[in-house]
UniProtKB/TrEMBL annotation:
CDD domains associated with the record: TM_PBP1_LivH_like (cd06582)
PANTHER family membership: BRANCHED-CHAIN AMINO ACID TRANSPORT SYSTEM PERMEASE PROTEIN LIVH (PTHR11795), HIGH-AFFINITY BRANCHED-CHAIN AMINO ACID TRANSPORT SYSTEM PERMEASE PROTEIN LIVH (PTHR11795:SF371)
A GO cellular component annotation in the UniProt record: plasma membrane
Taxonomic placement: Bacteria, Bacillati, Actinomycetota, Acidimicrobiia, Acidimicrobiales
GO MF terms, alphabetically ordered: L-isoleucine transmembrane transporter activity; L-leucine transmembrane transporter activity; L-phenylalanine transmembrane transporter activity; L-valine transmembrane transporter activity
Organism: Ilumatobacter fluminis
Protein name as catalogued: Branched-chain amino acid transport system permease protein
GO BP annotation list: D-alanine transmembrane transport; L-alanine transport; L-isoleucine import across plasma membrane
Ranges annotated as spanning the membrane: 159-178, 185-209, 221-239, 251-276, 304-321, 354-372
Length: 451
C-alpha cells in the first residue's frame, strides 16, 4: 500500500515539474528553413492497382496580412510552400490543374483551413479520385458505401468514448458523484501526450536535453501516450486525495461536491488554455495518413490500430473487473457501499483506485481522439456525448457505459444521413432526454425505489 502511494507521489512530482517548465520549453524540432505547409497528391488507378502521383497541380496558400504564395507538385506529386510565421492559413487547390479525369473526393473541403504552430511544418491532405468526387462513391445519400463508412466512423467514436465513459460511470457508482471535470481529464491526456511527443523527458528534466531521444527531445507517440496515461492517472489520484476524500470525510453533500467539479472543470480548462494556447495542433507522429480501402470502408492505418487497441483495452478492463480482487471490490462498492464496507473492503482504497484508473482511461481516450487533432477544449466539446453514453447505458455500470458509448457513436454518425454534420452532436441531447424519460435507470442499470 505504501509503495503504491510512493509511486503515485513520484508521478505527481513529475507532473508538477512538467507544469512548471512547460511554458519555458522551446521547440526541439524546428526547421532550419522556417515553417512550411506541405503534402502530396496522388490517386489510385484501379486498372494498374497502384497510386499515381498528380504532378503539376497548383496550390495557393494565403494568410494574414495579405500573405499569399503558390506551390506546384513535382513529379512525385509532392509540394511544399513556406510561410512566414505561425498562424492560420488557407490552402486552395486549383482544380483546373488536376490531371484529366481526376477530381477532389471532397470538393467542399477546398479551400482547406489549417494552422501552423511552434514553427513546425504542417501537412495537409487533398484526397483525389478518378471520376467525379463528392458522393463517397455512391450516387445516393443513402448509398451502401456511405452507410458503411458512417458505421465505421461511429464504431471508432464509440470505442474512444467508451474509455472516457467507463471511468465516469465507475466514479459515480462508487461515490455517487457526477464529475463534470472528467472531460478535462480527457484533454489532459491529449495535451500531455502532445508535450512529451514533441519535447520528451527533457521538457521535464532540463539537463537531459543534450541526450538523444527519448531523454532529450521528442519521443515516439506510443511512449508519449504511456506517459500521458500515467499523468492522467496521477491527476485523478491528486484530485481525489486533495479535494473529494476530505469532502467525503467532512460530510459535504453530493450536490456541493458536484458544484466543486464544475469549478474544477473551469479551472483546469483555462489553465490548459494558458499553458498550451488556443490553436489546434497535431501529434508529431502520424499527423496525416492516406486512408486505406477495406471493401466499402476507408480508414487510415492509425485509426485501425487505435480501434484495435481500444477493443483490447476495453476487454482488459472487463476482465480486470470480473477476475481480479480489486475489480470485484470496485463492483461491490458500486453495488452497495455500506455492505462492501461491512465485509472488510477498504472503500477509500477502492475509490482511490477507481479515480486513478478512470482518469488514466480518460487520458488514453484523449490520446486516441488526438490522432485527428489536438485541442485545448476537446474534452468539454465531447462532455455531452460522454454523459449521454453513461446515462443511456446505466449510471454506475461499466458495461452499460460501453454499450451506451457504442450506441451514441453509431447514432450520431448515422444521423448525418438526415441532418447537417455540423449539428450531429445535438442528437446526443435527444438520446439523453429520451433515455431519462423512457428508462431513467439506463439499459443495463437497475431501477431503485426512492423514499
Amino acid at each position: 500500500m505504501y509503495s503504491g502511494r510512493t509511486i503515485l507521489k513520484g508521478l505527481l512530482a513529475i507532473m508538477t515539474a512538467a507544469l512548471t517548465l512547460l511554458g519555458l520549453a522551446s521547440p526541439t524540432l524546428a526547421q532550419d528553413s522556417g515553417p512550411a505547409i506541405f503534402g502530396s497528391l496522388d490517386y489510385e488507378d484501379p486498372e494498374l492497382e497502384e497510386d499515381i502521383p498528380a504532378a503539376g497541380v497548383v496550390l495557393t496558400v494565403s494568410g494574414a496580412d495579405g500573405f499569399e504564395a503558390t506551390g506546384t507538385t513535382d513529379d512525385a506529386g509532392e509540394f511544399r510552400v513556406e510561410v512566414p510565421a505561425d498562424g492560420a492559413y488557407s490552402v486552395e487547390l486549383d482544380i483546373e490543374t488536376l490531371p484529366d479525369g481526376v477530381s477532389l473526393r471532397n470538393p467542399d473541403n477546398n479551400p482547406l483551413e489549417t494552422e501552423v504552430n511552434d514553427g513546425r511544418d504542417r501537412r495537409v491532405l487533398f484526397p483525389l479520385v478518378l471520376g467525379e468526387g463528392g458522393d463517397d462513391g455512391g450516387s445516393s445519400t443513402f448509398s451502401g458505401r456511405r452507410i458503411a463508412q458512417l458505421t465505421a466512423e461511429g464504431l471508432k467514436q464509440g470505442l474512444y468514448l467508451a474509455m472516457a465513459a467507463i471511468g465516469l460511470s465507475l466514479i459515480f457508482g462508487t461515490t455517487g458523484l457526477t464529475n463534470f471535470a472528467h472531460a478535462e481529464l480527457v484533454t489532459w491526456g491529449m495535451l500531455t501526450t502532445y508535450f512529451f511527443n514533441f519535447y520528451g523527458l527533457a521538457g521535464v528534466i532540463g539537463f537531459l536535453a543534450p541526450l538523444p531521444p527519448p531523454f532529450g527531445g521528442g519521443v515516439n507517440l506510443v511512449f508519449a501516450a504511456v506517459l500521458g496515461m500515467i499523468c492522467g492517472g496521477a491527476l485523478g489520484w491528486f484530485i481525489n486525495r486533495t479535494m473529494f476524500r476530505p469532502a467525503r470525510r467532512a460530510g459535504v453533500s453530493l450536490i456541493a461536491q458536484m458544484v466543486m467539479t464544475i469549478g474544477l472543470s473551469i479551472l483546469l480548462r483555462y489553465f490548459m488554455l494558458y499553458i498550451f494556447r488556443g490553436g489546434p495542433r497535431s501529434f508529431g507522429d502520424f499527423a496525416a495518413q492516406r486512408a486505406k480501402s477495406i471493401g466499402p470502408i476507408e480508414l487510415t492505418a492509425k485509426d485501425m490500430i487505435a480501434m484495435g487497441l481500444s477493443v483490447v483495452i476495453l476487454l482488459g478492463v472487463g476482465l480486470y473487473l470480473q477476475m481480479t480482487r480489486m475489480g470485484k471490490a470496485m463492483r461491490a462498492v458500486a453495488d452497495n457501499r455500506e455492505l462492501a464496507e461491512s465485509t472488510g473492503i477498504d472503500v477509500e482504497k477502492v475509490i482511490s483506485q477507481v479515480w486513478v484508473w478512470g482518469a488514466a482511461l480518460a487520458a488514453l481516450s484523449g490520446v486516441f481522439f488526438g490522432l485527428d487533432q489536438v485541442k485545448w477544449d476537446f474534452g468539454f466539446r465531447i462532455l455531452l456525448l460522454v454523459f449521454a453514453a453513461v446515462v443511456l447505458g446505466g449510471l454506475g455500470s461499466a458495461y452499460g457505459a460501453l454499450l451506451g458509448s457504442l450506441i451514441v457513436g453509431l447514432v450520431i454518425n448515422l444521423s448525418t444521413l438526415f441532418i447537417d454534420a455540423e449539428v450531429k452532436n445535438m442528437v446526443a441531447l435527444v438520446i439523453l432526454a429520451v433515455a431519462l424519460m423512457v428508462r431513467p435507470q439506463g439499459l443495463l442499470g437497475r431501477a431503485e425505489r426512492i423514499g
